[in-house]
Amino acid sequence: MRVDFDPAEMPRTDFYRLLTATVVPRPIAWVSTVTAEGTPNLAPHSFFTIAAVAPPVVQFTSVGRKDSLRNVEATGEFVVNLAPEGLAAQVNDTGTDFPHGVSEFEAAGVAAEASLRVAPPRVAGSPVALECVLHSTVRIGDSTVVFGRVVHAAVSEEVLVDGHAEIGRLRPLSRLGKDEWGTLGEIRELSRIRHTDWQGPSSPGA
């Protein structure tokens, strides 16, 4: 038995809550930008993923016209910082709707460091920073998808094992529904099966 929901017959906020409670977990792009005048900005965006590999492009969505979007449009640059479990309170603090022109780095006490290829600073305590230049934006309804070409990646050596970013050391945060946040739980390894090795469907729960 299922319950049916029709977005055309529901208030926007109610269907938004349904989407964000069911499309889970969502990785967090902790996006740093600067205003045209050079003031740093930092905000978490949980509509985030990889868009392309060659060239390397990541994307995040601004629901409404938030400062991150305005700054990217004005300067053409941003940094995606991984949001680690140890900085959960600061990640949440930077989601506060501070007035335009206020630096969330300063307001939330987040340490910054200079980026290598772009003007926006990186989060010093983040284990991974993807420095991006604007590729394009796409407006969809009340939201804007921002595509950024990654021009540099800075990864803490503390999370690398044989050159690979180890998930148990990254400890990434994720967003769930309501005010819920996810941390790293059980990790399972399942190799993709080649057709030549196919033995038939796996048993449920295997």
UniProtKB/TrEMBL annotation:
Its cofactor is FMN. It comes from Streptomyces catenulae. Its EC number is 1.5.1.-. Belongs to the flavoredoxin family. GO terms for molecular function: oxidoreductase activity. Pfam families: Flavin_Reduct (PF01613). This is Flavin reductase family protein. It is an enzyme of class 1 (oxidoreductase). Gene3D superfamilies: Electron Transport, Fmn-binding Protein, Chain A. Residues 21-165 form the Flavin reductase like domain. Keywords: Flavoprotein, FMN, Oxidoreductase. InterPro entries: Flavin_Rdtase-like_dom (IPR002563), Split_barrel_FMN-bd (IPR012349). SUPFAM superfamilies: FMN-binding split barrel.
